Amino acid sequence: MRQARRLSETGVRVQALVKRHPAGVREESAMLRPLLQFVTEDDRVMEVVRPVPSTRRQPFGDGDNVHVSYDPADPRIVVVHGRQRLGPERAFMAGGTLVVLLSVTLFVVVIAGR
Questions:
Q1: pLDDT of 77-109, one tens digit each?
Q2: Which element (helix H / strand E) includes 12?
Q3: 68 pairs with which residues across the strands?
Q4: Would you state the pLDDT for residue 94?
Q5: Could you give the count of Cα atoms lying within 13 Å of 9 in the half-sphere of its Cβ?
């Protein structure tokens, strides 16, 4: 999450074209994760696999345009704007916080009971 946030804020923002994998690639992961093609600041054409698979709510069709941010030091690292799944990540962090608080509370109760 930290790296995605950093790239969203400080990375170079460009528009990318969504492309299907070449016909020779028949892997399931290749069908779920299309290629993103974009041009870097130094005029290199990059093709990277989309970092997360398409969903029914947010499908990626061949020929769609999306906004991405990439790391100028390594353009293969990209973040797709507007496609973050913050709900599950926040729920996981809240669950971890609850476990820590419960553990500290139980520790205090055990120490106080002695």
A1: 888 876 556 677 788 889 999 999 999 999 999
A2: strand 12-19
A3: 14, 80
A4: 92
A5: 6
H-run or E-run covering 1: none
d(CA 109, CA 114): 9
**Strand-pair partners of 104:** none
The secondary structure of 24-65 as a DSSP string is T---HHHHHS-EEEEE-TTS-EEEEE-SS---SSS---TT-E
> What is the DSSP code (8-state) at residue 50?
-
CA nearest 50: which of 39, 37, 64? 37
DSSP designation for 41: T
Please name the amino acid found at residue 22.
Answer: P
